[in-house]
Amino acid sequence: MAGRIEIEAEKLVTRLLSGTEYELVDLEYVKERDWYLRIFIDKKNGVDLDDCQKVSRIVDDELAKCDFLQSSYILEVSSPGLDRPLKNDRDLEREMGKQVDIVTYIQIEGKKEFTGKLSAFSNDSITLDDSMVVPRAQIASIRLHIEF
């Protein structure tokens, strides 16, 4: 059920945000104590509380008209945060040249964790530091590297 709702909600939110300065980064519909519809947005110079409120009002009005959400839920709109996963080519393109952390499902050259400059990507692989090629099928997660 949650998968179908996420797909429908993602289509709706993508349509509502097209032509605005906002980009839908991720969306999840999860059961905790209550059902939560979490929408993660971004824009060129970052997201603040006013942006989240604005998008929440736009989306909430339209979601109320939809029939795919039949039970009550809590709507949350937020920025994805610094440690957000890079999930698609658009994310990778935006972060090209930056340091990223990759975790793989299996060991590659004796390791499952890699950090390096994102230098290239294709449908099949991600390249770090112009030389370390990691098959996309083996990647569990990619995130921006955060230096403390």
UniProtKB/TrEMBL annotation:
Superkingdom classification of source: Bacteria
All residue ranges annotated as the Ribosome maturation factor RimP N-terminal domain in the record: 13-83
CDD domains found in the cross-reference section: YlxS_C
One GO process term, biological-process aspect: ribosomal small subunit assembly
Annotated Gene3D superfamilies: Ribosome maturation factor RimP, C-terminal domain, RimP-like superfamily, N-terminal
Subcellular localization: Cytoplasm
UniProt keywords, alphabetically: Cytoplasm, Ribosome biogenesis
Annotated Gene Ontology cellular component terms: cytosol
Family to which the UniProt record says this protein belongs: Belongs to the RimP family.
Natural source organism: Pectinatus cerevisiiphilus
Main location: cytoplasm
Domain Ribosome maturation factor RimP C-terminal: 86-148
Pfam families: DUF150_C, RimP_N
Designated name of the protein: Ribosome maturation factor RimP
Function per UniProt: Required for maturation of 30S ribosomal subunits.
InterPro entries: Ribosome_maturation_RimP, RimP_C, RimP_C_sf, RimP_N, RimP_N_sf
